[in-house]
Automatic annotation (TrEMBL):
Matching PANTHER family: VITAMIN K-DEPENDENT GAMMA-CARBOXYLASE
Compositionally biased intervals (Basic and acidic residues): 753-764
Record carries keyword Lyase: yes
Name the record gives this protein: Vitamin K-dependent gamma-carboxylase
Keyword terms of this UniProt record: Acetylation, Disulfide bond, Endoplasmic reticulum, Lyase, Membrane, Transmembrane, Transmembrane helix
Gene3D superfamilies, A to Z: Jelly Rolls
Organism field: Iconisemion striatum
Domain HTTM-like, residue spans: 60-319
Database matches in CDD domains: cupin_RmlC-like (cd02208)
Main location (coarse class): endoplasmic reticulum
GO molecular function: gamma-glutamyl carboxylase activity; vitamin binding
SUPFAM superfamilies xrefs: RmlC-like cupins
Transmembrane segments: 120-153, 201-220, 297-316
Gene behind this protein: GGCX
């Protein structure tokens, strides 16, 4: 084995590995070669790229299987956990309940979910496949079990797509073609011929290049102006994880320099820094810190841990041998191999630097000729890498999936580059025969909100509604969507033309979407003005910025909770119609008008170009409620310190028992007092949870995960029983599901719920 086999994807320096390899092969080598600077840094010579034969030999160079085996084990473990978490085994019955009128969004319209019990079987096969990958047991079969079911579930629901779910599927596919069971595997115990045998270098090349692409292209995508200027993820700077930075920098600079600037630099450089010996320790430290932060910032399942597991792939392939050799010898029977003696493999091409006499006397394998599998491995490596660099920029082909952002989200590595907020969504249907017009609740018959931003999903949703609405005596329905979106803190504006019947609208994956409204990027400079305006408002006043196209209008209803609501024109010309008063008012830039609460009004854009205006309002109900809370808080403080001398009326007496009885709100007759006490109790619970020690947090986390996983497996067992012996009596089935739904305690599950029932504010 030549020392160059340690090269990281044929790009990594192999100085340390060369020394170890030279020492091991001193008795075999006639004369050690003098390494060029290029070979010392990159791990290969120019001659290795000079011909197809040399390139195939390079990519099939024998390499230590240890690092690949450890990654296989970690990846399989993480995917087994992921099946119960992000893949959704624990709540599968909610998603695929038989007979439920649900609109789904598969990649191919002909792709449909199986009956519920069979879906549990699909998940069980995927889980067993992940376990097989982890153990290296019947490795190829386990990989096929995992990726076939994984990609089926992936294609079944576009609304669940994201970059890391796509990455899991890619890695599973790669491992299927690799020799990942050559180290620390059950297959190695069953088949000694493959135990601790060399793997070709291309196994590492593909994995390392894949992770490089994830980092580097994520950085390239972050060169977008919105990210560079700090508009994509500005809210992250308020998270407690950035408190150390906020101690020396204002929040605005933390957002710009740390969140956006730091994320850009790390993604652009991490892939390069991981490749080289001198920078690898620093790179591993920073990417580990980065992924640990992400695990707390976002609900991204096993992604952070999967990326942590990929970092050692960039180290020398024999790092597990050095690591596990430090453990006590009595553990050697359960730990991976630490011996440096590696079996030869027909999957590799060995260098021709051994004499015939040495080959005969020292049992050194003869250099084989290039076989078909060697050439196929090299061809696959090159084509796969080219395809992975091409896919994120293939949107000029799949034009129908392009919206304000290009392509289906999930394979472009544009992670966290775009943040959206939805202000107004209206679904209008029209009976094709009677002309009757009605409205649907946004998201009716769906389990996702992602359809609002993607034309392909909107078309699927409209088609599904056209099939469901006839059940409610609506014939030949036409469906219109009026969706207002703000992307990266811009104006709220329409994303699709509200005048187009989406049921009959044309859509093709290869043609531009004609009913997509353009993003008003020319108005982006207004975002600086937004910050100035918002900074001048008090805490009780809120504001919404709107932009609209000529010839269109916004119909809006002002809730009675929102007093003192006014429309201020920033650009263009609008006509405001008060529906009940049947009056119209034309406004120019700088003018404003107060609109009545509890009534409809319409804002027409009458200028030649887009209009820009803002709603300024105060939630008077919430303001009054908070004012009452303040008075009750002051009264409660006086009761506690004994300065309150006046007798309390009956409706305020529960304030006296609040400290001794956390359920005092049950006895409160006044609704404001009841809400106040309930709010206090919730705040105490939240404070207690935040101030909990590490052991208590770990226990709470473990218990929560236990009941989640428990439900998934119990429901799977019920489904398997149903498939094998048929459905039991309904009462028995109900008891079994209730047992599976058992949780740790009602209080634990309720602590995370928002105070939805407080008057005037749904997410106070």
């Amino acid at each position: 084995m030549e020392p160059r086999d340690a090269a990281a994807g044929a790009f990594v320096s192999s100085d340390g590995e060369e020394k170890a390899a030279q020492k091991r092969s001193a008795a075999k080598c006639v004369k050690a070669e003098t390494k060029s600077k290029m070979e010392q840094i990159l791990g290969f010579k120019k001659e290795d790229l000079s011909s197809w034969h040399n390139l195939v030999a390079l990519l099939n160079r024998p390499t230590d299987p240890a690092s690949l085996g450890i990654f296989r084990c970690l990846f399989g473990l993480l995917m087994a956990i992921d099946v119960t978490q992000e893949r959704g085994l624990s709540h599968l019955d909610y998603k695929y309940l038989d007979g439920a009128p649900v609109c789904r969004f598969p990649l191919f319209n002909s792709l449909e979910p199986l009956p519920l019990d069979w879906m549990y079987l699909v998940y069980l096969v995927m889980f067993i496949g992940a376990l097989g990958i982890m153990l290296g047991c019947f490795y190829r079969l386990s990989c096929l079990m995992f990726i076939s079911t994984y990609w089926y579930i992936f294609f079944l629901d576009k609304t669940a797509w994201n970059n890391h779910s796509y990455l899991y599927g890619l890695i599973g596919f790669q491992l299927t073609l690799m020799n990942g069971n050559r180290y620390w595997s059950v297959d190695g115990l069953r088949r000694p011929s493959i135990r601790n045998a060399h793997v070709p270098l291309w196994n590492y090349t593909i994995l390392r290049t894949q992770i490089f692409i994830v980092y580097f292209l994520a950085g390239v995508k972050k060169l977008d102006a919105d990210w560079v200027e700090g508009y994509s993820m500005s809210y992250l700077a308020h998270h407690w994880l950035f408190d150390p930075f906020k101690a020396i920098l204002p929040v605005e600079l933390v957002s710009l320099l740390v969140v956006h600037g730091g994320g850009l630099v790390l993604d652009l450089t991490a892939g390069y820094l991981l490749f080289f010996d001198a920078t690898r320790p620093m790179a591993i430290f920073f990417v580990s810190y980065f992924h640990c932060m992400n695990s707390q910032l976002f609900s991204i399942g096993m992604f952070s841990y999967t990326m942590l597991a990929t970092s050692p792939l960039f180290c020398y392939p024999n790092w597990p041998r050095r690591f596990f050799s430090r453990f006590p010898s009595f553990l050697s029977s359960v730990l991976p191999f630490t011996s440096s003696e590696i079996q030869p493999s027909t999957s590799c091409i060995y260098p021709q630097n051994h004499s015939t006499e040495q080959q005969e006397t020292q049992n050194v394998p003869k250099p084989p000729k290039l076989r078909l599998k060697h050439k196929l491995g090299a061809i696959f490596t090159i084509l796969y890498i080219v395809e992975q660099f091409f896919m994120p920029y293939s949107h000029f082909i799949t034009k129908g999936y392009n919206n304000w952002t290009n392509g289906l989200y999930g394979y472009s590595w544009d992670m966290m580059v775009h943040s959206r907020s939805h202000q107004h969504v209206k679904i209008t249907y029209k009976d094709g025969k009677t002309g009757e017009v009605g409205y649907l609740n946004p998201g009716v018959f769906t389990q996702s909100r992602r359809w609002k931003d993607h034309g392909d999903m909107l078309k699927q949703y409209a088609t599904c509604l056209s099939h469901l609405l006839p059940r409610y005596n609506i014939s030949d329905p036409e469906v219109y969507f009026d969706i207002w979106v703000s992307i990266n803190e811009r104006f709220q504006q329409r994303i699709f033309d509200p005048r187009v019947d989406i049921v009959k609208a044309e859509w093709s994956p290869f043609k531009p979407n004609l009913w997509l409204m353009p993003l008003l990027v020319d108005l982006s400079p207004w975002r600086t003005k937004f910050q100035e305006i918002e900074g001048s408002l008090d805490n009780q006043t809120e504001i919404v910025f709107i932009a609209d196209f000529p010839g269109l209008h916004l119909e809006n209803f002002v809730s009675e909770d929102l007093g003192n609501t006014s429309v201020h024109v920033l650009q263009g010309q609008v006509n405001v119609e008060i529906v009940e008063e049947k009056k119209n008012y034309t406004l120019q830039p700088g003018e404003q008008i107060k609109v009545p609460a509890g009534a409809y009004h319409k804002v027409f854009t009458v200028s030649e170009g887009p209009s820009c205006y803002m709603y300024v309002y105060v939630n008077t109900t919430e303001a009054a409620l908070l004012q009452n809370f303040t008075k009750l808080q002051e009264l409660q403080e006086r009761i506690r310190n004994g300065t309150e001398t006046e007798p309390l009326p009956p409706e305020l007496q529960p304030l006296m028992a609040a400290d001794d009885n956390e359920r005092a709100e049950v006895n409160a007759t006044d609704p404001v007092v009841q809400l106040f006490l309930k709010r206090q109790r919730r705040m105490k619970e939240v404070k207690k949870r935040r101030e909990a020690g590490a052991l208590e947090r770990l226990e709470r986390f473990t218990v929560k995960k236990y009941f989640t996983i428990r439900r998934g497996f119990l429901m799977t067992a019920i489904a398997m029983r149903n498939l094998l012996v048929g459905l039991p009596p309904l009462d028995q089935l109900r008891r079994e599901v209730e047992f599976a739904n058992m949780k740790e305690s009602p209080t634990e599950s309720n602590q995370d719920e928002p105070l939805k029932d407080e008057v005037g504010h749904g997410e106070l």
